[in-house]
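Quick start: read one record
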Amino acid sequence: MAKDLFNRYIWLVDTIYRTNGITFEEINEKWLRNSMSDGVDIPLKTFHNHRHAIEDMFDINIVCDKKGGYKYYIENADDMEKGGIRTWLLNTFAVNNLINESHHLKRRIMFEQIPSGQKFLTPIIEAMRDGLSVEITYKSFWRQVEYTTEVEPYFVKVFRQRWYLIARNKYKDAMRIYALDRIQSLTQTGNAFVMPKDFSSEEYFYNCFGIIREDNCPPETVDLKVYGTQKEYFRTLPLHHSQEEVETEKDYSIFRYYLSPTYDFVQEVLSHGCEVEVLSPGHLREEIRKHAEVISGRS
C-alpha cells in the first residue's frame, strides 16, 4: 500500500510538472488512462491529501491558480532542475512510465539493482515525514552479534547500489550511519522527535566522498593525475563537487579536490588502477602505494 502511494505521488508530480497548468478534471482524465487507476476516478479529497503529502515529504508545492481557471501548477518549478530529490523523482517516474507503456522494450532496458531499498525505505521515509523515531535490529559486517536500538531518522542516501539511513542514535546521543541491507527488522516507535533546524543533510556530507564521515579525517586538498581517455570520464562525471581541472596536457589532466580522503575515496582511487595517480597529499599517495603493493603481491 505504501509503495502504491509513493508511485501515485511521483505520477502526480510528473503529470503536473509537464504542463503549464492543469485542471483537476484534466488530471483525472490522465489518471484514468494510467494502469494504477484500475479505471476508478481519483476523488478530489484524495487528490488534496496527495498534494499535502508531497509537500511534506519532498518540499514540492502544488498550488492552484484560481484566477486562471483553477489550474494546478508546481510552485518554483525551475528549482526542480537543480537536482536532488525532485529531479530523482521525475527521472525515476519518466523511465518507469515509458517502460510500462512500452512492454516490448522491457528486456532491452537494464538497471542496477538496489536490493536494500525494497523493504525498509518506505517506512523510514514515512517516519521522517511524521517525525517519529524507529527501532531497528541491526547486524553490521564488523560485529558477529546483531543489536537493537532506537534511532531518529534524519535522512537517507544512496551510494554504490545501497541505501543508507543517517540517524541520531538515542542511546549514544550521536549520529550513526546504517545500511538498509543490514537492518534485520524495523518498527516505528510512536516516539516523536524534532530534527534540529540548523541541520543540513547536504552540509553533513559536504566534504565527503561516499557514505563515510570521520571526525579524525579532516578535509584537505587532493591532487589526482588522470591519464589517457580516463580524464574524459572525470570531466563528464566529477568525483566530488569540489573537483577542478587545474592542468591539462595531451596525455593527462590534473584534478584537484577539497575533501576528506576516507576509506570510500581510497577505494574509488584504487578502482581506476594505473590510470589515476595520487600526487598529493603525501600520506594518501603512500597509502595507495601500499595497497598497490599488496595487490601486486597477491597476483
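The mean pLDDT is 87.
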